[in-house]
Specification:
The complex is a heterodimer of chains A (148) and B (483).
Chain A: E1 16-19, E2 25-31, H1 34-49, E3 61-68, H2 72-90, E4 92-103, E5 106-115, E6 125-126, E7 134-136, E8 139-147
Antiparallel strand pairs in A: 1-2, 2-8, 3-5, 4-5, 6-8, 7-8
Chain B: E1 7-11, E2 14-17, E3 29-32, H1 35-41, H2 46-53, E4 59-73, E5 75-84, E6 89-90, E7 102-111, H3 112-115, H4 119-129, H5 146-153, H6 155-161, H7 166-170, H8 188-194, E8 207-216, H9 219-225, E9 231-238, H10 241-261, E10 274-275, H11 279-314, E11 324-330, E12 332-341, E13 344-353, E14 356-357, E15 376-379, E16 387-391, H12 394-399, E17 403-404, H13 414-420, H14 423-432, E18 436-439, H15 442-447, H16 456-466, E19 470-482
Parallel strand pairs in B: 3-4, 18-19
Antiparallel strand pairs in B: 1-2, 2-3, 4-5, 5-13, 6-10, 7-9, 7-11, 8-9, 8-19, 12-13, 14-17, 15-16, 16-19
Helix pairs in contact in B: 4-11, 5-6, 5-11, 6-11, 8-10, 10-11
The chains are: A alpha+beta (148), B alpha+beta (483).
Chain lengths: 148, 483
């Protein structure tokens, strides 16, 4: 299933809200299901990293992500860690996600992005701090803390 | 949830939560504070996290937090916990993602008034020569296989490459190299993140700062260390960059399985651990040491670039601008050390996360010139405020596994700081005070506003009053370079 490109959502990012954490950055992420949560988490992290639009002159990059994890929380950490890795090492920011497999312990996806003109805020790591994916009336919710 | 009534004051600056507070605590939890800081400590989850560390397998009494403590993940920032060998826990969360984040202090023999006319040029040179921010690689290009040598030799690699002097190594904790580092225990991802970042500053709260020694409190110790009032000095605050961050990520992930394998129950996934002597524990130790060595090498290369910057700007204009090294210390690390526990010399694994080693007089591991006074302890304050040079004490060996504070400690989230502080206004305020600022972004500047931190003078007064470090000199900034 292909998820629409959300890189130019003019109404702000739905399903993601930044919350206070003393030394680092934290997002509260919602989604109707795990797949939507992964998308919202990625887009939320993008928003933490950079306020600039993707470099329109840069070509589109496609990567394949394949993750196996112990549980859904570990999956979410590994997913975001993968995206943070590409941002740090190649200035790549991903806005479109084409999922082939999504389960609490496995993800396979093609991710589409471009080089960012700048990345103002460095994500050192994605942590497990108080991370629990919990069911809500509208789907799922989790808080993710990023070491910056 | 811990409240004031669960805490007992057991010394002028020492508080304790009994091991009976929660059934899974194995030892009491203690923290250093004064009555005013005590109130602010209750405002975040740092005490809850400190209590959690008291549940670690093999933990030795007590677990501790320094007065700059604040909420982290797993351990609180400012946390110290020792675990018994061979089978007590080793926990990546007890070290942190930025393995061997630490501070180096370099000193010139210049009076600050000799340097002042050149500060603006110097700040620009430092910013140009010491890359910071995402996507900015270092000037050092490693040959194939050279990263292995770097992580196994640390500052020794830098000496071979001509970035260091022998005195630099002698005046670095562990001579700038932890034995037992093993490059084969670090992942391809960690290598990829670290290979281009040698000699880079990073961002967040990392900085290079030119300071003046504003005040000397212990004249004879200051003279022995090489400090005098009015002197121009330079601090570097930086760690193991992406390589260290990835190593911690890798092993926190790996240890999620370890706790099931060893039948461990922990209150926080960021506290995951393995028995020290287990294959997993030893692999993490070897990888952590590799990251620590990367950080020592990184600060050494930055020191080289700083020396070069001084030479570029000041050659022919001043004399005595050559920089010598006072000391380099880590504040995120786990180390095997020998401490007196129940009157017996015992080897333990001491985790310090946002806490600094503070070994006192008589410690055999110190360089000869510091052995009778204790090694320098470097405590940077928040941007634009003071920093401190202290020395380790016998008191820290008795009370805190040879540990003391590491900085000012945050009180306000980055998110809140950006909302309540205008970066441009802050920059003007600092410049009006004569501090030359070079920053990667105004929002990054706002996040590091002094208002977001505790008062470092208060933090240092507490550790001095508690006897776990001794004040020697107060430094104030004249130039700040940050990512």
């Amino acid at each position: 299933m292909t998820i629409a490109d959300n890189s130019r959502n003019p109404d702000g990012l739905k399903g993601v809200q930044e919350i206070a954490h003393t030394a680092d950055r934290a997002l509260c992420i919602q989604g109707r299901d795990l797949q939507e949560m992964l998308v919202n988490a990625a887009l939320g992290m993008n928003r933490l990293m950079t306020s600039s639009e993707p470099d329109a002159g840069a070509g589109r990059t496609v990567k394949t992500v394949e993750i196996e994890a112990l549980d859904a929380e570990a999956l979410l950490v590994s997913w975001l860690s993968e995206l943070a890795f590409w941002a740090e090492t190649a200035m790549l920011v991903f806005h479109r996600f084409d999922f082939k497999i999504v389960s609490p312990t496995r993800v396979r996806a093609e991710i589409h992005g471009r080089k960012a003109a700048s990345i103002e805020n460095h994500i050192k790591a994605v942590t497990y701090h108080h991370l629990a994916i919990v069911p809500t009336a509208d789907g799922l919710s989790a808080t993710v803390v990023f070491d910056v | 949830m811990v409240s004031a009534r669960d805490i007992k004051k057991i010394g002028p600056f020492l508080f304790e939560i009994s091991a009976r507070f929660r059934p899974d605590m194995r030892v009491p939890a203690r923290f250093f504070a004064d009555d005013q800081l005590f109130e602010s400590i209750l405002n975040d989850r740092s005490l809850e996290q400190l209590i959690n560390t008291a549940t670690l397998p093999g933990v030795v009494s007590p677990v501790l937090a320094m007065p700059d403590m604040h909420q982290g993940y797993g351990f609180p920032i400012g946390g110290v916990a020792a675990t018994a060998l061979p089978d007590g826990a080793i926990s990546p969360g007890g070290v942190g993602y930025d393995i061997n984040c630490g501070v180096r202090l370099l000193a010139s023999r210049l009076e600050i008034q000799e340097l002042s006319p050149h500060l603006d040029d110097l700040a620009s040179a430092l910013q140009a020569n010491c890359p910071s921010g995402v996507g900015k690689g270092g000037q050092v290009k490693l040959k194939p296989g050279e990263l292995d040598e770097l992580v196994e030799k640390g500052a020794g690699w830098a000496l071979r490459r001509g970035f260091a002097t022998e005195t630099d190594l002698a005046h670095t904790e562990e001579n700038g190299c932890l034995e037992g580092a093993d490059a084969s225990k670090i992942s391809a991802r960690a290598r990829e993140r670290g290979k281009d970042q040698v000699g880079t500053l990073g961002a967040g709260n990392h900085f290079i700062e030119v300071d003046v020694v504003e005040r000397i409190l212990e004249e004879s110790i200051a003279r022995r260390i090489g400090l005098f009032e009015g002197q121009a000095v330079v601090q570097i605050h930086c760690g193991s960059r992406g390589l260290g961050h990835q190593i911690c990520t890798d092993y926190v992930n790996l240890f999620q399985k370890s706790i099931r394998k060893y039948g461990l129950t922990l209150p926080d996934r960021e506290l995951v651990c393995a028995p020290f002597s287990s294959p997993e524990g030893q692999d993490y130790l070897a990888a952590m040491n590799a990251a620590a060595n990367y950080a020592f090498a990184n600060r050494q290369v930055l020191a080289f670039h700083i020396r070069r910057s001084f030479e570029q700007v000041l050659a022919g204009k001043t004399k005595n601008h050559q920089l010598f090294q006072i000391y380099d210390i880590a504040h995120n690390m786990a180390k095997v050390e020998t401490h007196l526990i129940d009157d017996r010399r015992t080897q333990v694994c001491v985790h310090r996360k946002g806490a600094t080693r503070a070994f006192g007089p008589g410690s055999e591991v110190l360089p000869v010139e510091y052995r009778d006074i204790g090694h320098p302890v470097l405590v940077p304050g928040s941007m634009g405020t003071a920093s401190w040079v202290l020395v380790g004490t016998t008191g820290s060996m008795i009370q805190s596994f040879g540990s003391t504070c590491h900085g000012a400690g945050r009180t306000m989230s980055r998110h809140q700081a950006k909302k309540s502080v205008n970066g441009a206004h802050l920059r003007r305020q600092l410049e009006d005070r004569g501090i030359h600022i070079r920053a990667g972004s105004l929002s990054g500047l706002a996040e590091e506003a002094p208002a977001a931190y505790k008062d470092v003078d208060r933090v240092v007064d507490i550790v001095h009053g508690a006897g776990i470090a001794k004040k020697v000199a107060r430094l104030t900034p004249v130039a700040v370079i940050k990512g």
